[in-house]
Design a protein that fits this description.
Layout: H1 3-13, H2 15-19, E1 49-54, H3 61-73, E2 78-81, H4 126-131, H5 147-159, E3 164-166, H6 176-186, E4 196-200, E5 203-207, H7 226-241, E6 244-248, H8 264-272, E7 282-285, E8 291-298, E9 301-308, E10 327-331, E11 335-343, E12 346-354, E13 370-374
Parallel strand pairs: 1-2, 2-3, 5-6, 6-7, 7-9
Antiparallel strand pairs: 1-11, 4-5, 8-9, 8-10, 11-12, 12-13
């Protein structure tokens, strides 16, 4: 019985690392407190818009720098980062309720794709255990906060002044302060309203907040949520204006990965209920630490879904028992980004492998995929 008071004291002593984590350093920010310079008003004259897409750095600065260096060499007009800049974890895992989190005696534990994880529901005061005894296995806080991500991406954002669209990932949203930091980076007025639309010429990039998948926490993709109603309106408006909409999210609606299966809420409440009913040619997502291209039947067309999570997180593999019917290409075990050239009537894309200093299987540099998505515009 003496163990719990000791755990409580040590946890409360460490609460500063949870509630008062490292704040973003101003030297890595541009345009005041924003993460990036404003978007261009129009497409480059005489050539397609060049867009680099990557995700899931998860605090690995070495791989992230290698990705950024290769992207810079190609001189993009725009960069899309699909989430998980940090390596944060939820304490417990529970929603962030401040110091009250450590007083909760029990909490249902669930992690998609890992049934055995539910056994942790039997552990009393889970946030206390995570903050103390279990901390070496997975600290709740990334000690550098967003600063490692900001420093590694600075050559693109700060030196080259390339517009940079940040899509929040689950590891960026486990703590209330993280959500506030993301809001400050992206210019959002409300930390619980991180979704937005970015128009470039006749293109509309629709940025979604898919939440953090912690049981009991704020769910931005629930049915009839403010984001859902906003998404319906912003896609309908794009059709009315003749804009090509590209949807960007962290959690994938479709994935054949073994450790990061598709997010049911995004699959059914976002893709099936709304996006597939519109003329959206391309859906970009991260989270799964691999590359996959999936064709999904939609209303009168085929929507191409690209999963790209190769910027530093631990690799995942193909899961045959859960393979998506429309999966056209799955590449595991390489760091990478996706290069898009968006012109009149089509989007051309390709996988770009990057040597991030890891140990690869033989022939990793020969892996490739190229695709063309008609936009009808």
């Amino acid at each position: 019985m003496r163990l719990l008071p000791l755990l409580a004291l040590s946890a409360l002593a460490g609460c500063a690392s949870v509630a008062g984590h490292a704040r973003p350093e101003s030297r890595w920010l541009v345009e005041g407190r924003r993460l990036s310079v404003p978007m261009p008003a129009a497409l480059p004259e005489g050539r397609p818009l060049r867009v680099a897409v990557y995700g899931d750095a998860q605090g690995d600065a070495g791989v992230h720098r290698a990705i950024v260096a290769e992207i810079r060499r190609r001189k993009p007009d725009l960069v899309l980062f699909l989430g998980d800049a940090c390596a944060c974890l939820p304490p417990g895992p529970l929603p962030d309720l401040g110091t009250r989190t450590y007083a909760i005696p029990c909490w249902p534990q669930e992690q998609r794709g890992k049934p055995a994880f539910g056994m942790l529901s039997l552990l009393p005061f889970p946030a206390l255990w995570h903050e103390t005894v279990l901390r070496p296995l997975g600290p709740p806080r990334d000690p550098d906060g967003f600063n490692r991500f900001l420093e590694a991406s600075w050559p693109l954002r700060g030196e080259d002044r390339v517009p940079f669209v940040f899509v929040p990932g689950n590891h960026d949203l486990y703590h209330a302060q993280d959500r506030e930091d993301v809001a400050a980076f992206t210019g959002a007025e409300d930390p619980k309203k991180l979704w937005r639309a970015v128009d470039v010429g006749r293109l509309r990039f629709v940025v979604l907040d898919t939440g953090n998948d912690v049981w009991g926490d704020f769910d931005p993709v629930s049915n009839n949520s403010p984001q859902h109603r906003w998404l319906e309106g912003v896609l309908a408006e794009a059709e009315d204006k003749g804009l090509t909409a590209v949807v960007c999210a962290h959690f994938p609606p479709y994935s054949s990965a073994s450790l990061e299966p598709p997010m049911p809420e995004v699959r059914w409440k976002v893709a099936a209920r709304n996006v597939l009913r519109r003329r959206v040619p391309l859906f970009l997502s991260g989270h799964a630490h691999a590359y996959e291209r999936i064709d999904v039947p939609a209303a009168g067309h085929v929507m191409t879904c690209v999963v790209t999570g190769g910027a530093g997180g631990p690799f995942t593999a193909f899961e045959p028992d859960r393979a998506e019917p429309g999966s056209r290409r799955f590449v595991a075990g390489i760091h990478h980004f996706v290069w898009l050239e968006i012109g009149e009537g089509e989007i051309r894309g390709r996988l770009v492998p990057v040597d991030g200093g890891a140990v690869y299987r033989p022939g990793w540099h020969e892996e490739q995929d190229e695709f063309t998505v008609p936009t009808g515009k």
